Amino acid sequence: MEDLCLKNTLRLLQSADQIKARLSGDFSSVHGLSVNEVFLLMHLEQAPLHRLSRVELAKRMHVSASTVTRMAAPLEKIGVVARQADSRDARLAFVVLTQTGLERVAEARMTFAKQAGYVFRDRWTDEDLCQLSDLLHRLIADAPGDLT
Amino acid sequence: MEDLCLKNTLRLLQSADQIKARLSGDFSSVHGLSVNEVFLLMHLEQAPLHRLSRVELAKRMHVSASTVTRMAAPLEKIGVVARQADSRDARLAFVVLTQTGLERVAEARMTFAKQAGYVFRDRWTDEDLCQLSDLLHRLIADAPGDLT
DNA sequence: CCGAATCGCTTGCGCATGCAAGTTGTTTGC
DNA sequence: GCAAACAACTTGCATGCGCAAGCGATTCGG
């Protein structure tokens, strides 16, 4: 029982490392964005009003708040996100997706899907993929920020 | 079809980030080893003679060769691995698990399994776990270095 | 054989990230 | 109301990592 959990956890982490290694290469060269930057944009995309506070973004991305601060700066500079204050709480500094950002994330999703296709190749049936999708969904169902 | 691949890839990466975030906390405080260091030791553990060359280790861990060099140094210092030369090829510098290292990785595996158990809690049946295990195995089957 | 290409490993450098401390703004307890 | 606790964000510092360059060792082509 516990051994099965261990096996699954190990395989999950190894699969993720493998996939991340494959993606990191082909990605930044295409869109000028890193994988993590695209993930940040995707989180904004699926959020109401296309915006999130920095701490909320940090929670959903499983990174520290300082990382969000530093990731957002260059993204503002290239105009894919903007900073937005809250009239009720002056501490809040929302990160909001711009129109340009929306277009960029749509493009990035395309190449992401293409690469994802290579990962599963042709040996996977739709049924396999649905099964895996359902199982993985149960792992992230309770946490906020599912990008699918 | 491609959307299913995309969905699975996103969920896989998100699940892995989530699990890694949970593990990183409870781990180094217990064994004085980081998650990645334990992974390195596990790769050695399942290798013939409990040893691997640095480049082979790099491939299996999906990191660069320089990372292996720098990870091995402190592990040598605390005595869980040792450096071993090859009589045939003087370029090779194997990383070999010591007796102490064997014990340490066994301990680490225990707490790893414990944490893995928390990840899946009690809502997962053995059948679910086997299904997920099989599916994930297909993702890493072609690459060397499966730790399970 | 000998030079050139290749390989395994290490090192310098830059970038990304977490942690802790600091700043500013808000909420709570009295 | 006011002080103390708390929250959101930023910044300094240390660490970990990839890339490219460098160095010794091996292999290959002639």
Automatic annotation (TrEMBL), chains A, B:
Biological-process GO terms, alphabetical: response to stress
Tagged with keyword DNA-binding: yes
A molecular function GO annotation: DNA binding
Keyword line: DNA-binding
SMART domains given in the database record: HTH_MARR
Top-level taxon: Bacteria
Pfam family, one: MarR
Annotated InterPro entries: HTH_MarR-typ, MarR/SlyA-like, WH-like_DNA-bd_sf, WH_DNA-bd_sf
Annotated ranges, domain HTH marR-type: 9-141
Protein name listed in UniProt: DNA-binding MarR family transcriptional regulator
Organism placement in taxonomy: Bacteria, Pseudomonadati, Pseudomonadota, Alphaproteobacteria, Rhodobacterales
